[in-house]
Design goal:
It contains four helices and twelve strands. By secondary structure, the protein is α/β, with parallel strands linked by helices.
Length: 195
């Protein structure tokens, strides 16, 4: 597995929406953003396939529409799902990009933020490989801080206070990234970042 991207590698090409230093596994589950929209929300998710297990090819295969239902009993209900995220941060901090930031990833589903419906239109979706009850790793917090910093610097429309969990935009329907996610740690790290 390639080493996690370092701060010097996290650059966003605004024309293509691609993140240098990330492994690219492009998903078909995306479409154009509405006209004149720029991302002004970052939604943090948590995902593990099978549930509670880490590693393996299954997240890539889910987001590319190639998840075999026969590989695990929990996969049967996910076969045929058309979901994606912009970026996944694996347990070791590796960054995987599925959808360019210029396009709409299908990550938030039915969602609402500050009175606006359909968060996929104006958000960036970042998945952390994990589960609601399993603490995320130091490498993941470091990679998320680097990624969020690059996004904040690249998109003036995005502000630190607009980094929220999936549970914040889909309350009652979603619980990720879970109660173990350390929001204070993330916000402190972002506040301490270099201007």
């Amino acid at each position: 597995m390639p080493p996690a991207a370092t701060a010097s590698h996290l650059k966003i090409d605004l024309a293509t929406g691609l993140l240098t230093g990330a492994r690219q596994v492009l998903s078909p589950f995306c479409d154009p953003r509405p006209a004149n929209f720029t991302p002004d929300l970052l939604v943090v998710h948590g995902i593990s396939l099978p549930p509670g297990e880490f590693g393996g090819p299954w997240i890539d295969r889910l987001f590319t529409g190639d998840l075999p239902g026969s590989a695990h009993p929990s996969f049967e209900e996910r076969v045929g799902l058309r979901v994606s995220a912009h970026v996944l941060i694996r347990r070791d901090g590796e960054l995987v990009q599925y959808v360019p930031f210029t396009l709409r990833a299908w990550h938030a589903g039915v969602s609402r933020y500050r009175g606006r419906e359909g968060c996929n239109d104006f958000s960036i979706g970042v998945e952390l490989e994990g589960a609601d009850t399993v603490p995320y790793t130091d490498a993941q917090y470091e990679a998320l801080t680097r990624l969020a910093t690059a996004l904040l610097e690249s998109y003036g429309s995005l502000a630190p206070e607009d980094i929220v969990g999936h549970s914040d935009v889909a309350p009652g329907r979603k619980t990720d990234p879970g109660g173990v996610f350390d929001w204070v740690r993330l916000r402190s790290a972002l506040a301490a970042r270099s201007p």
